[in-house]
Amino acid sequence: MLQTTLYRGSPGWLPCFRPPPPSKMCQLLGMNCAAPTDVTFSFTGFAARGGLTDHHADGWGIAFFEDKACRLFIDQQASATSPLAEMVKRYPIKSKNTIAHIRKATQGHILLENSHPFMRELWGRHWIFAHNGDLQDYEPDLDGSVYHPVGTTDSEKAFCVLMQGLREAFPGAQPPLPELFERVGELTRGITDHGVFNFLMSNGQALFAHCSTRLHYLVRRWPFSTAHLVDEDLSIDFAKYTTPEDRVAVIATQPLTDNEIWTSFEPGELIMFQCGDVAARMQIPVPERVLEKLRNPALDASASAPCGGVIREALAAGAADDGDDPIDF
User: Fold this and answer.
1) N or C: which terminal CB in the chain sees fewer CB atoms within 10 Å?
2) Which residues are known to be catalytic?
3) Superfamily of structural domain 24-318
4) pLDDT at 152 over 70
5) Which residues contact 324 (CB under 8 A, 6 or more apart)?
6) What pLDDT, in 10s, does the model give residues 44-53?
7) How distant, in Å, are the alpha carbons of 159, 187, 220, 284 from that of 204?
8) What's the whole-model pTM score?
């Protein structure tokens, strides 16, 4: 069953998510919305994990759709100190589908071309993809493929395989989303045998999220309430900015807020989000060696030792505040 965790940890005994210890994984963030939605609140907390509250300093990126086209920002610097990340926090992002990633390198050098999300074209639309994990002995045959990696990561290779597999299955045009979802599941099954394959992928119409080991989500809907970030002392009352028609699904490696109820993905679960809610789900077998990494993170090559407190203190001592934090959601 899907698991939620409640605890009596705030004034008035309000139920809220029990924040986990600092993550040892790269970090994923996705948003799928019923209407174009501002992502800066979630991104502000997320970006802090790139070297401030967590140890993922090998690059970051964010991609968000505006109709069929997509804006993509990537940087090989740590997101907590990146001037580009500061710009994105203040950029008026309004999108129905957004994917962001902060990287802890396991394969490939710390280079711009190895920063997620990756982007390709299929059926006249942009597709974006970000991966958290480590695929071992993964050398897919891409000879004759339309898609080839620019960088040297296992992640980009897997994305090329997904894109080529979809193109071959539906060479003429994009199928209805239920058929597309089934094919994404079949292709995912062929990759998961190689290791940890947590990923987010979107074509601007839906967002696909697969969990090998760890991923969480929540759906915000009417009546909206106040949310408080785990990684920043920042809150927002969504009721002031929303209508009954608004609905937002947020997907993250680790929960971003400490006063909302987040749902854990089951290992092997693939979910398609559409219009800010769960539209379809399926279960894909997870190899036992991958499940062992979930039980014992020390075995996971995609893990890094948490050192958030040390990094936070060092940055606080050496960095000046250059402006007010954004309060949009």
Assistant:
1) N
2) 26
3) Aminohydrolase, N-terminal nucleophile (Ntn) domain (3.60.20.10)
4) yes
5) none
6) 766 666 545 4
7) 16, 20, 19, 24
8) 0.81
